[in-house]
Amino acid sequence: MGLTRVDVEPELPLVAQLAAPIQGPVVSTNRYHVVAGDEDAFVAAWRAEVSYLSRQPGYLGAELYRGIGGSKVFFNLASWQSAASLMAAGDSDRFRALIAAFPPSRCYPHLVQPIALDGDQAGR
Predict the structure, then answer these.
(1) Domain boundaries of the chain, sorted by first residue
(2) How do residues 96-119 score in pLDDT, each as one tens digit?
(3) CA triplet 3, 43, 8: central angle to 5 degrees?
(4) What is the dotted CATH code of the domain comprising 3-7+24-112?
């Protein structure tokens, strides 16, 4: 069981993104492909993970989305004060156990930062 991570950009894996000199808040994006019939178990595992992460320093919030029309694709967006706070939260046996508790699914993680906001100018 658990998540199988597949890097969105093989030439820039998540571990390299986390090691990059990053300033300011970051958003951890994850696209999941869930096996048919495991959707409820997946959402329950996600809720357990978020319950843990929400108590970690630097956590700002997360949202889970599902594709429309019975899609087996889910998207998670989790906001953090910094890449360092995200790394610290993920570097624990408890977090690894929570990831292992997910039903078998493929996960495509990527770290992003906002560059433009509706009605605002980012990068000022």
Answers:
(1) 3-7+24-112
(2) 999 999 999 999 999 999 888 777
(3) 40
(4) 3.30.70.100
